[in-house]
Every structure is written in structure tokens, then in C-alpha cells.
Amino acid sequence: QVRLAESGGGLVQTGGSLRLSCAASGRTFDSYAMGWFRQAPGKEREFVAAITWGGGPQYYADSVKGRFTVSRDNAKNTVYLQMNSLKPEDTAVYYCADTRVAYSISGYEHQNAYADWGQGTQVTVSS
After folding, report:
1. pLDDT for 23-39, tens place per residue?
2. In 3D, which of 51, 46, 19 has the Cα closest to residue 35?
3. CA atoms of 7 and 5, how far apart (whole Å)
């Protein structure tokens, strides 16, 4: 059974930084691309970032490009999201997910490309 557990969320002021972590278990972690999504109150869940299984190419939503960095440590079965220059509009619950298909990042911007989801971690950016 796959388990994804996010941590690292919290309250931060505008311009601050946070580093989210997502620990995975129950699957061959280094065979699957990973994604980060977020959902703000009253809004749909949206794509934030994705990273291939080997930590090579990364992909970002335009809204976070240049501010957020996704990385992974396959030895620790963990994926990270470093968030810098945070803005109030970044306030949301952040989720990590693993792709349905091994060695594929096709459709990385779409939720249906992902098989398993964590419970989410709240990020709140105060103005």
C-alpha cells in the first residue's frame, strides 16, 4: 500500500520561505515521477511542480516559476518543494502525488496522471 506524507507547512510572512517534504513508502520510489499540487479555499486543485523519477527535468506552473524548486532524494524516498518569495496567493493546502505509470511524466499537469495522494499540508502566507 502506497503512503505519501507531506510535512513542512506553516504560517509565513510575504517574502518568506518554506520547504515542504513528502515521504513515500510502499512503492519503488525511484521508478515514478512525483508532482506537487495545491488547493486554495473555494478553488480547484492546481498543478504546482513535477519532477521525473531520476530527478532530472522539472516542470513548474507559470505562477511559481523562478520562486519554487522541486527536488528529490531517492535514497530517502522523499520529494521536496522549496518555496521562496512567498505571496499571499500561495496560501493553500499542498499535496504531493506519484504518477500512475512508471518512467512516465506524460500529462504531469493533470491530476488524473497521478495514482496516490498525501493528506496535504497547509501553507499560509500573511500579507
Report:
1. 999 989 999 999 999 99
2. 51
3. 7
